[in-house]
Amino acid sequence: MTKAYDRVQYDILLCKLYGIGIRGAAHEWFTSYLKDRQQFVDIEHFDDATKTISCVRSDCKTINASIPQGSVVGCLLFLIYINDLPKIMEEPCVLFADDISLLTSSENNNNNIVHKKIDSLLLAADHISKNTKYSP
């Protein structure tokens, strides 16, 4: 997954939080924490000639998706977001941080079966990527 934290969709994550029992005030807090966040960039410049500091600020931008990286709960929220992927996949998969490894095998080294399983995994990954905005 590329830019995994940046692709987390709030509505999906909030539904998953509700589904695992986070409701009431805690759910409202997460909603407030995630939705309608804004960010801007400040750039300070020191002018050697005048010995002054000037500051330029970008326009404020509303963030419509993503989990704040480096936050205390960011990693936990991401794990909750992807935790049901192994249930969706037909073949086993291993989750580690923001990586997903899909596993497949075949008895007797039957390449046709392995190719069919890989095609199935790719279709599932494509479906998941369209519904969650992830890159397979």
Termini Cα gap: 6 Å
Helix content: 40-55%
Secondary-structure-derived class: alpha+beta
Strand content: 15-25%
Largest sheet: 2 strands, antiparallel
**Overall mean pLDDT score?**
81
Neighbour order of strands in the largest sheet: 1-4
- Global shape: elongated
Total helical elements: 5
According to DSSP, the number of beta strands is 6
Contiguous runs where pLDDT drops below 50 for at least 5 residues = none
Order of helices and strands: HHEEEEHHEEH
Number of domains: 2
Rg calculated over all Cα atoms: 21 Å
Structure description:
The protein has 136 residues and is an alpha+beta fold. The protein folds into two domains: 1-83, no CATH class; 85-136, no CATH class. Helices cover 41% and strands 19% of the residues. It has helices spanning 10-19, 24-34, 74-82, 85-88, 111-132, and strands at 37-39, 42-47, 52-57, 61-63, 93-96, 99-102. Strands 1-4 form a two-stranded antiparallel sheet. Strand 5 (93-96) and strand 6 (99-102) form a beta hairpin. The longest helix has 22 residues, at 111-132. It is elongated, with a radius of gyration of 21 Å. 6% of the residues are buried. The mean pLDDT is 81.
